[in-house]
Each structure stands twice: as structure tokens, then as C-alpha cells.
């Protein structure tokens, strides 16, 4: 078979399984199988493919058709300007989280501090922490996660990207491991679990059945982590320090209400993502 024939057959296979991104997924998986980028696939569409190459590719297509995420099949995901290693047990970084990175950078640039300190809670693959470190070498970043699997992934990404000297990845639960850091952080960021338990079952199967439940499930109404962390973050922030959370599209009122009720934050703002959905809540410590 040729490259084009493989792509066409794979696309139809995925489409028959109801996968909306069938063409893109087929391109990404074929490129991964052959060590080619997507552009190269179309530079020589009549290139013949060996039997072994075809077999390896269609094994990936079979797994994708069964719902396994493309990022787990290729072992990587692009985020910000970085390519991150990801795998089962690790939340796959999403483009909408880049909005949080943008606003975190804008805040950090505004500071007149030689070495701002940043805490990333629930770092997962290290996406947010590493994106910030890549843009601002002077940052002192602690990336925290309770999962040993996530910590290993984030540390590996930091090493692979040459950022291990800028990001300290630690395992532990917030806030217990941060008690010694009272008043230390100029910025705290997090993309916490915020999907309600009921909504978990309505997610696409590649998310619901494959990504780590503990990184998704925010409790009965999706707000458990915000209720717990909002009062606990304030003592860790330096004077005028900033707190930024990613939120669900329908959670702005609830999360800003929790921040206001805590009585230790000011300048509460909601930021929308590029799809026009509420995505980030940010505020300053009083």
C-alpha cells in the first residue's frame, strides 16, 4: 500500500468508530510510525509502505479505534512551545491551559523581583511549570504532585528539556508539604481536578476511560479542590502575591464566590480562553 492509501483506510476505520478527528489522528499516528512529520506524508503520497510498517501502523489505529488517546499512543504531546512526554496515568495537557501560562507570564514580568518563586500544584506532566521556566530562566519553581507516576513524568520532561535546574519537582499532597513555605511564593498556579462526579460519565471515552480519574474528578459539584485549597493558598503567598486557577467553563461564579468569601484575596478576575469560555480565575493576596 502507499502512504495515501494507508491514510485513507485508517481515516475510514476511525470514522466508522465515531472519532471526529479521524483524519488528524491517522496522520499523527502514521507520521509517528514512520518517523515523519505530517507535511512529509503528503510530499510523497505514492511512497510504498512495507508490510511491517503497515502492520505496526494499523496496530496503533486499532488501539485508537478502541479509544486510547493519540498522546498515549505516540508518547508525547505539544504544549506551549514544548513537546512533553506523556503516558497512561498522566493527564494530557490541553491547549486551553496555555491561557493560564500567558497570564502567569504577564504577572511575573510585571514583578520587580530578581528571582520570583512559583508553586505549581498538581503539576502532572509538568506542563505549566516547564512552560514558565522555558520563558523566564530567573524563576524559582516548585512543581508539586501527589502521584509518584506524575512526578517521574515531570522530572523526566524537565531533564529532557534541559530545565531540571529551574524546576524542582516534588512529590506530596498540598498543603502538607508546603507548610514551611509560608509567605514564600509570588505566584501559585494550578490546573486542578474540576469536573463534577456526575459529568465524568459524560466525557468522551478517550478521556473517561483512559486519563487518570484523580486528575479529573472534582467531587460532587467539581469544587472540592477549590474549597480546600483557596484558604490554604493565601498563607503561602508573599504580600501582593497572585493565585491563578484553571476552572471549568461554568464555574466562574462559584470559584470567584469562594475566593471572595475567603476574605484574603482582592482583584478577582475571570479570563476567557480562545473559544470564549471562562477558563482562568486570578486574584492577589490582600
General description of the model:
The chain is an alpha/beta fold and 286 residues long. The protein folds into two domains: 64 residues, Helicase, Ruva Protein, domain 3 (Orthogonal Bundle), CATH 1.10.8; 209 residues, Rossmann fold (3-Layer(aba) Sandwich), CATH 3.40.50.150. Helices cover 41% and strands 20% of the residues. It has twelve helices and nine strands. The protein has a seven-stranded mixed β-sheet, sandwiched between helices. Strands 1-2 form a two-stranded antiparallel ribbon. Helix 2 packs antiparallel against helix 4. The longest helix is centred in the N-terminal third of the chain and has 15 residues. It is elongated. 39% of the residues are buried.
What's the mean pLDDT score? 94
The rounded distance between the terminal residues' Cα atoms is 65 Å
Using the alpha-carbon principal axes, give the shape: elongated
Helix and strand run: HHHHHEEHEHEHEEHHHEHEE
Question: Radius of gyration over alpha carbons?
Answer: 21 Å
Strand element count: 9
Main sheet properties = 7 strands, mixed
